[in-house]
Specification:
- The protein is an alpha/beta fold.
- The chain folds into two domains: 2-121 and 236-264, Rossmann fold (3-Layer(aba) Sandwich); 127-233, 2-Layer Sandwich (Dihydrodipicolinate Reductase, domain 2), CATH 3.30.360.
- It is 37% helix and 24% strand.
- The protein contains ten helices and eleven strands.
- The strands form two sheets. The chain has a six-stranded parallel beta sheet, with helices on both faces. Strands 7-8-6-9-10 form a five-stranded mixed beta sheet.
- α4 packs parallel to α5 and α6 (127-143) packs parallel to α7 (165-177).
- The radius of gyration is 19 Å and the shape is elongated.
- The protein starts with a strand and ends with a helix.
- 41% of the residues are buried.
């Protein structure tokens, strides 16, 4: 039985992940952690997640939950996730991280830390989205350079980072399939007299509003035709179920940084 704890258990994703753990065979919820000033600290993790009480209280320090779990699932914020990764690496405890908004420096630090512990890091834990990453790579290669690529993403008004981690991952998949880096060809804003569109550019556009769970569309725009590939998330459950599947998969793996495509067996 895999013993799992949830960082950010008082949030929308954290509480739903806790519920999915309880509903899933082969994995057990043994702890939850929140920042010290969060109102759920000290409350029963079952009640916090909208379930019957289970006799385990929400901790305000990640070290406490790491002593009793095999894997920590983290959907918090970049600085908090890095702190949790440092503490987990010191113990060799596995992690699943769905936090977005990491900087290049953060990612370099994560690569260093995961030399001492196994970690699944993915901006989107949805099975459908991770299949989409592969489909987009294949489409880019098959269509060739004659098609312009634009990516539009929409999320709820509370999302703090833009573009979404999923949109960036889609853009990176296109760039890699073309033998380029996103740093070279990514375009995030258009305004005023912008001139003719450069052929190699990959455009990323952001929409924020309401309660949109997540929507991503990749446009392949050719002369006389276009292809649109869209993924729409209707609830957070697909992310939560993917995170729990990743948690069951990563325990016992060698130290290293893994993706959801590793979990699904479709990594290139």
């Amino acid at each position: 039985m895999v013993k799992a704890a949830v960082a950010g258990i008082g949030g929308r994703m954290g509480s739903r992940i806790a519920q999915i753990i309880v509903e899933t065979e082969g994995i057990e919820l043994v702890g939850g952690v929140e920042r010290p000033d969060h109102p759920v600290v000290g409350r029963d993790i079952g009640l916090v997640a909208g379930m019957p009480p289970c006799g385990v209280l929400v901790d305000d320090a990640v070290e406490a939950v790491l002593t009793r779990c095999d894997v920590l699932i983290d959907f918090t914020a970049p600085e908090a996730s890095l702190n949790h990764l440092e503490k987990a690496a010191a113990r060799g405890t596995a992690m699943v991280v769905g936090t977005t908004g990491f900087t290049p420096a953060h990612l370099e630090k994560i690569r260093d830390l995961t030399q001492r512990m196994p970690c699944v890091l993915a901006p989107n834990m949805s099975v459908g989205v991770n299949v989409l990453f592969k489909v987009i790579r294949d489409l880019t290669r098959l269509l060739g350079p004659g098609y312009d690529v634009e990516i539009v993403e929409a999320h709820h008004r509370f999302k703090k980072d833009a573009p979404s981690g999923t949109a960036l991952k889609l853009a990176e998949a296109v760039a890699a399939a073309r033998g380029r880096s996103l740093q070279e060809v990514g375009l995030y804003e258009r305004h005023g007299v912008i001139g003719e569109r450069p052929r190699e550019v990959i455009g990323l556009q952001t929409v924020r509003g309401g309660d949109v769970v997540g929507e991503h569309t990749v446009f392949f725009l050719g002369m006389g035709e276009r292809i649109e590939v869209t993924h729409r998330a209707h609830s957070r459950d697909n992310f939560a179920r993917g995170a729990v599947a990743a948690a069951k998969w990563v325990v016992g793996k060698p130290a290293g940084l893994y993706s959801m495509q590793n979990v699904l067996g479709i990594a290139e």
